[in-house]
Amino acid sequence: MEGLACHFEHTMTGIAPSLFNELWDQDWRGMYRRMQPELYSTSYDRDYYLLGSQPQDFPRYAAYWVGYNIVKAYLETHDVSERELVGIEAEALIDFANTLVA
Known about the structure:
This protein has about 100 residues and is mainly alpha-helical. The longest helix is centred in the last third of the chain and has 16 residues, at about 60-75. It has helices at about 1-15, 30-35, 45-50, 60-75, 80-85, 90-100.
């Protein structure tokens, strides 16, 4: 959902979210590969994935960056709008994202 919110912000303002200013050159696919083992974890560490509590592992806003790029790629390859994407099951986006890093 955060990736969708960031993409919607970009669509509505025409300006990429400023929280990505230091992430444009970061490999989101590599980050996603490292996040994959935790996708179904019941203990989610918000500070670790979103706020960069361990920057040697993930930079600040890493999960936002990954989600934004998954949403962007999904919208570019499927005939759906951002509005329609709200109703898509998370599993469909995960399956799609997994094809991008296979």
